[in-house]
Amino acid sequence: MLCQICRANPATIHIQEIVNGEENTLHICTECAKKRNLVEENSVNSHFHEMLERLTKAIANSADLKLAELFDTKKTQEEDESEDLACSVCGTTFKSYKKTGKLGCPTCYEQFGQLIFPELALIHHGSVHSGKTPPETVEQWQDPAVSERISLRSELERLCKSLDESIRREEFELAAELRDRIAAIDAELKSAELIPDESAPEEPPKKTRARGRRKSS
Amino acid sequence: MIFHPRIRHVASRGPVFIGQGPILSTFVSLSRNIDGFQFPGTASANILESAAELGLAALHHDDVRRLLPSMFQIRYELLTASDRELLVERELLERGRTDVAPCRVFVCAEDGSASVLMNGDDHLWLHMTAPGAAFRELWDRMSALESALARHLRFAFHPRLGYLTSSSSLVGTGLRITFLIHLPALGLSGRRKKILENIKDAGLAAEPYFPVDGKAAGNLYLISNRTTLGEREEDLGMRLTEVVTAISREEERTRAELITRQRLLFLNACGRAYGLLRNTYLIPTSEALDALSIMKLGADSGVFRHFSRQDWAELLLECQPAHLCCKKNMNLSPVERGEYRATCFRERLHGPAPAPGSPDAADS
Q1: Which of chain A's residues have a Cβ under 8 Å away from the Cβ of B150?
Q2: Cβ A205–B9 below 8 Å, yes or no?
Q3: pTM of the model
Q4: How far is CA A57 from each of CA A79, A191, B58, B202, rounded to the nearest angstrom?
């Protein structure tokens, strides 16, 4: 993790503060902390953090990726404006991501890409995935019944949006038609018990009785 | 009935926190989302229902089923608050996931060794537990399960960022590895705080297993990774295992030193902890966990020859709120729980008091 102020040295000091109920965490290096008088010059902690920083710097330098070189992480005016950027699929804004660290859908990663890549490099061990990868062939849609119900639900989603739109435009005849189609699809979906709850286990374990039987046999 | 029959059945299984020495248990979880679907935080009920159905269809394939022995599924809203608390106490459910949300489904192996939560923070949260330091074994099982699921589900994946998750802190591998570790001697020596601060700087997290006023009741800590991008799963697991093993060795070394140099104080602490639990009539969870912690220290060091790790692990689970309610099969107020907890301890420790002999270096 890199220092959030200089974006060059590894962050070894983590400061958490709560202002007006909002929690903020600052990850910084010893140098920046000293500049801002956040650590005492000769304290034990200061020496400990310096030692740790030398250690983590050595690790970072030996790694293939020099994150500071990969990304120009200085905040620009464009980035300030980009806080209003919203995902076209789920509506999640970049501002809300910065506040919660949560994204709304896989497309958010594409749409906020250049803005979040440097952030990810700061909070993780690196910036490129190097673990498991999915197989090339996936038989996701092989069950026709599941496939049909999923397309029905997608249709239901689309109709609900159209219904809202037609009501807003005061197209009440169209709205009535859409309402009936929604009710029909809803009934069709509800007729199938999709995720049944399973009943109680057939035979709960009774250790003492089992032992008794073994003894008598 | 305040507990679902299936959950009662899981609660009747043996404890999982029975590792030898300080490392009691390992938990591994993997977060995955289904491609083309919004994450649960923003998705509508229809989308969530579709994601749950796809996930369940994949889980019911034969090659997946054999990896989750005798699994069962329950719609989340059918689980009571007590059920969910009990699952958290057994580490089968994440602590922050006890709220009811639409289209959530809980799937669990009957032996309580694995669970799946659908539509939590992500579409699928796969979770496995094993006693002791067992990352390698757990990862082999988890990787096999994930690979089997990936044959039937297209997971949201980015060539550069890896598996996409709702929280950017999990993107990449989506893997969270956690060790439950017992550190009483390092606590007594005053070095625990510094050691745990050091591991935080190495990109790991250390938090109390049972936090009470910012402190860890029972000297139990959860140590886990905070980073998921840029490191292979096996490398992360080995790195974390090395750190936890080093802490465990330090704890054992400190224990040996404590027993040698302050033998009388050590025996006194063990005897008093036993006496408290043996004779109490009302005891809160944190006090019980603190006393159990000393009992474990004594058992590991050979002071309590007739008090095994298994006994200790059973008591550790039994004394927690939801397990007490499950045993009694009724909701209990904090005071009622304190009374019933004390009764359970007196019943379990009713035999003759173990004579504190000379403590061994370690439990054989």
Answers
A1: 134-135, 138
A2: yes
A3: 0.77
A4: 28, 62, 45, 12
